[in-house]
Specification:
The complex is a heterodimer of chains A (264) and B (322). Chain A has 264 residues and is an all-alpha fold. Helix content of chain A is 80%, strand content 0%. Chain A is globular and about 65 Å long. Chain B is of the alpha/beta class and 322 residues long. Chain B folds into two domains: 167 residues, Rossmann fold (3-Layer(aba) Sandwich), CATH 3.40.50; 59 residues, Alpha-Beta Plaits (2-Layer Sandwich). Chain B is 33% helix and 29% strand. Chain B has eleven helices and 14 strands. The longest helix of chain B has 16 residues. The chains are: A mainly alpha (264), B alpha/beta (322). At the A-B interface, helix 1 and helix 8 of A face helix 2 and helix 3 of B.
Amino acid sequence: MLYPLLLKTFRDHVRGIAGWVSGIVALIAVQLAVYPTVRDTTSRVTDFADSFPEAFKKIFRMEEYGTAVGYLSTELFSATLPLIFIAVGVTWGARVATDEVEAGTADILFSLPISRRRFLVTRIAAEVGVLVLLGAVLWLALVIGAPIVDMSVSVGRVAAASASTVLTGLVFGSVGVLVGAWSGRRSMGLGISLTIAIAAFVVYSLAPLVQFMDDINPFNPMQWTVGAESMKRGFDLGYSLIAVAFASVLMTAAVAVFERRDVL
Amino acid sequence: MSATWPMAWSANGGSQPAAAPALAPSLIEVRRATKHYGRDIGIEEVSLDVRSGEVLGLLGPNGSGKTTLLRLMLGLLNFTSGRISIFGRDVTAVGKAIRSRIGYLPGDLALYDQQTVMQYLEFMMKLRKLDAMTSAMSLCERLKLDPSRHISDLSRGTKQKVAVVQAFMHAPELLLLDEPTSGLDPIVQREFELLVDETRRRGATIVLSSHILAEVERLADRVAVMREGRLVIVDDVTMLKSRFARRVDLEFESPVDSAPFAALPGVRGVQMSRRTLSCYVVGPETELLRTAVAKGVVGIHAHDPSLDDIFLSLIDNSKQAS
């Protein structure tokens, strides 16, 4: 690990990280602020939720909406937070191998006695670090905020759901890392990984309705993370290990590709 | 500048790459190094030896392959074929160990704009795992570079000074400098030349590419001329000059017949203008002087070819050959 590079990476992006932290805290604050209204009108909310078309309820996993767990799952962990973490993972992932090259600073950097492998591992560590930090912020905001609005949720379940959300960002971020390392272009890393993420989300969402998508959904990274529904069912070790293995393979491939490519 | 055509005469043809004479051990060995970018040629079959302790000037027009050659030496690019060894070790096998002994200044310079000069230099030192602060500050002072300034506020020339400091601060054994004086004002250019001279005297080896022929002439022991990815010639600056035609002007009290001069071996381009006979000579001038004295010469002016003449002549020859 190149610690000076790691520190510099965090320092260079401190404003961006602060922005994501603020956004997540604000989102959770708003959702928690609304929760007492939902809780106090459970029967009406349940009736309202039941009035949605069956397909819609399946797509957004709208079960037990009136309960704290159901509310958090539907409002935060089924789509909004995973999409935020995918955005973070993909934007960071796409630039892991590309920003120094595109900025032209790679020439001097790679003329130093550092290996490209260590460089990329350090940059990947920075990306993972940011995702874990945001996951910790997410967990902490819910753990601190929930009692304020008399919401009763298990700290462990919130941790499990936060971890799954981090893994969502990591899995799609690793696609960005690989494409960026292969192409040398951030835009390509961003474009391809976002396209794959959207496709994965569509397959995951429509799986309860379309048989073909249900058949391929076990191979869908979105199913390994969001589909584990950790807020309702607790941490899914099997799916999580598959997600970590998938991200590890892609990032290892990225290192191998990056070591062999020209610095242009 | 005078017409370049007579410069094409060289004592030995002058267009074949010359291997380094066995004066000092080779620090860099380039063997049939080839780099293609898709269908485009970066360099083609370049073979070259750089001796320990010398300054080698790489000359060539834009796109001639100078930067590609330097980047291959650093392992920034992969070879299409061929190899380069530095300090006796293959650059592709042990690049990291080699790079610890190299200072590099790229042609397309980019630094970290969000840092100050001091932060940048400290960052470079940390990645090199060494403390060269005293040397870095001394270089900053010498180049009149304020280390507290933000890089984003610096002009192109001042950024170039930062790059010079980072390349020299750890007293590397080998310096690879790509257009090092680009953007520097004349005073700093002079300081840079002194720095190169001192670095050579402490035993370091320097390869520098440049468009400024006069600069290469002042700094380099040998010159390698490249064109369209190929090495046109490598030679000592002095030897290179001696192998190309010198212009000689002979003054007489009255016009003389130019025919006897034109018939002399090694003499070309004879022209009589009023009382002055001008010609180009390759090799010994004995016969020319003997004939001139016999004709009553009253003044002799010999002009060594400049590197500009030689460079343009070589490029011209190379174009004709291809």
